[in-house]
């Protein structure tokens, strides 16, 4: 079983300061092939604001008169956190009726080892609506929906049952046109069959399953997520025309 990968895009990088005439500007360079947003939190009073960025776009986050503000004061006053997607207040509703394909090859069948609301690790907002399939090391993982590959982590070859192994879970994230994201987790080291920027079609092979990260057994951890002001939360989906909640522990999922 598993606890899956990170919820946020990048908490530290890509904030840049620019001087323009008499202004000191704070800008965010979105490095991703999907929308992203910056959450700006005033450390002193707790106020928050949000600035959205289109894929690969540079966006103005804040601007000050340069005689009234300096970079050190800005960094001591504000916390900048970057997340995938559009922030919750303005994003479009996702397609709740979209029928996702099973994330493995046709003609294959796999047992569910943890379903929705599993009491082992599927019990937080981030993981509540995710599924674990008992793929073995080297089995092929397929795309469940057309989308763009925005992140690949595949260099790790560590596995363990304590939280220190969480960062070692190789995974792929794919962005869908309704502003949802799919994660395919616990991949084999260098087991990706695609690259960042690829536009993948449903049922396309994208990776080999593995045994990496925080997990007790080899398997594929799969989930679909929407963006919120605190990062990803998992959402319920239709999977092979069956509500995801019906993929309960020990059920056999057959891709025919």
TrEMBL record:
InterPro entries linked to this entry: Cell_wall_metabolism_enzyme, Dup_hybrid_motif, M23ase_b-sheet_dom
GO MF annotation: an example: metalloendopeptidase activity
Residue ranges occupied by any M23ase beta-sheet core domain in the UniProt entry: 130-227
The protein's name: Peptidase
Natural source organism: Jejuia pallidilutea
Source organism phylogeny: Bacteria, Pseudomonadati, Bacteroidota, Flavobacteriia, Flavobacteriales
